[in-house]
Design goal:
This protein is of the alpha+beta class. It has a single domain (27-144), classed as Adenine-n6-DNA-methyltransferase TaqI, Chain A, domain 2 (Alpha-Beta Complex). Helix content is 14%, strand content 23%. It has helices spanning 4-9, 29-32, 95-99, 140-144, and strands at 33-37, 48-49, 56-60, 66-67, 70-71, 80-82, 105-108, 121-123, 129-130, 134-139. Strands 1-10-7-8 form a four-stranded antiparallel sheet. A four-stranded mixed sheet has the order 2-6-3-9. Strands 4-5 form a two-stranded antiparallel ribbon. Strand 4 (66-67) and strand 5 form a beta hairpin. The protein is globular.
């Protein structure tokens, strides 16, 4: 059964639309997590480095270094970005969440039609500052703290 249209209209008090399970718990993502895009760098505004420092933070330059459940960050040549630097939208409100390991799940925002894996998602174990073409799923409690 394809559930997307059904799940999108459910309220937490609505009875389950699935006849085979009366105890199905539906959790609406927006009630437990924020979904935000990564950093918008702006045209040729990013300063990248191969060396980490106080102003150069771990950077994930899009989903090309992602596989299902895995981020191959070490394969990027330039792995650090000057933050906030001269970025168009550095997402300063999320700086603490970006920097914290295991605080977010990164998901590709563009699908690959030729791939059997249309959606790549992985837990960020490093504390990466992601590019805009990645979604960050962040538990609400982390942003509120």
């Amino acid at each position: 059964m394809f559930l997307s249209p059904v799940l999108a209209t459910l309220s937490p008090l609505a009875p389950s639309p699935l006849s085979y399970s009366s105890s199905l718990l539906v959790v609406i993502l927006g009630r437990v997590a924020y979904v935000r895009n990564g950093i918008i760098t702006g045209k040729e505004r990013e300063e990248l480095s191969s060396i980490e420092s106080k102003e150069f933070r771990p950077w994930l330059n899009g989903p090309t270094h992602m596989e299902p459940y895995l981020i191959r960050w070490g394969e990027q040549a330039l792995r650090y970005i000057k933050y906030p630097g001269d970025l168009e939208r550095p997402r300063r409100r999320l700086e603490r969440v970006f920097a914290a390991p295991r605080a977010k799940i990164l998901v590709n925002s563009s699908r690959f039609p030729d791939s059997p894996w249309r959606l790549y998602a992985a837990v960020d174990d490093i504390g990466l500052f992601p590019r805009q073409n990645l979604y960050c799923i962040i538990p609400i409690r982390l942003v509120a703290e």
